[in-house]
Design a protein that fits this description.
The chain is 80% helix and 0% strand.
């Protein structure tokens, strides 16, 4: 079960990134071009927030069944000093949660705006900040915090 969830988490990561990049592109384009906030833009916002929440759900499942996290919590005094284990035990999960909360707040704020330019500006701002937090927290192969492959296999 763990390996399957890990592979799903790896795939959904790319869906999160692509959807955020597309939503941000739509938001900045609409904001600077004085376009009207269309139904399609609202759908993009909603789908992006939904994908991030799906990733959160998979991530939480992984957190509670991961042998790395289990080891981290049962050997906290020693493992908190080990960068890669601490990264997954605390930093990755906390930062991703913050990133998803930022995207969620932005999505909700967009719904409450009345002017199209405000909707685009709000979505652009909040989604960009959320994306930056998420990008920093991903264990890229080149990351100094923890290194994982771009794609995991089953």
């Amino acid at each position: 079960m763990y390996i399957i969830l890990l592979a799903i988490h790896s795939v959904v990561r790319w869906l999160v990134l692509v959807s955020l990049l597309f939503a941000i592109y739509r938001a900045y384009t609409g904001w600077f071009s004085d376009k009207s906030f269309s139904k399609f833009d609202g759908t993009v916002r909603l789908i992006t927030a939904t994908i991030t929440h799906i990733q959160l759900g998979v991530g939480l499942c992984l957190y509670f069944i991961s042998p790395i996290i289990h080891y981290f919590w049962h050997n906290y005094k020693d493992t908190v000093k080990v960068g890669e284990i601490r990264f997954f035990g605390m930093e990755h999960s906390l930062m991703m949660l913050i990133g998803i909360i930022i995207v969620t707040i932005g999505s909700v704020k967009v719904k409450h705006k009345s002017k199209d330019k405000e909707k685009f500006r709000t979505m652009a701002s909040w989604f960009t900040i959320g994306l930056l937090v998420i990008l920093i927290s991903i264990p890229w192969p080149f990351s100094p915090f923890a290194s994982r492959p771009y794609f995991r296999t089953f």
